[in-house]
Specification:
Blueprint (H helix, E strand, L loop, with lengths): L1 H111 L2
Length: 114
């Protein structure tokens, strides 16, 4: 009688363990599916955020390039104006130097030739 009860208990225990294993596998499978779904959603969000960041970066880079070009053009304009001013100043001083040289030469000639 004890042996029959032990066999029934062992069989019942094996059945329950089998059911428990099936439930655990089923639960793990549903957890895997849920985890994969979450990971896929997270990956999509990360890709979208990266795309937005790239777009923002490109936009900011384009603005910086435009500002750089504008600043470079301003510097070139200022340089050309300063160069023109320097050239005109040099021409004035050269003209003054030539006039004084001519005056000195004429004065020497006037003194030498009576």
């Amino acid at each position: 009688m004890i042996q029959i009860v032990e066999e029934r208990f062992a069989r019942r225990l094996a059945e329950e363990i089998g059911k428990l294993r099936a439930d655990v596998h089923e639960g793990l499978a549903s957890q895997r599916v849920e985890l994969l779904t979450r990971m896929t959603n997270l990956e999509a969000k990360v890709r979208e955020e990266l795309a937005n960041l790239r777009a923002d970066f490109r936009e900011e880079l384009a603005k910086l390039r435009a500002e750089s070009r504008e600043e470079s053009a301003n510097i070139r304009g200022e340089f050309k104006a300063a160069l023109a001013e320097t050239k005109s100043s040099m021409v004035r001083w050269m003209f003054l130097f030539w006039i004084t040289q001519m005056a000195a030469f004429l004065a020497i000639l006037w003194k030498v030739i009576p």
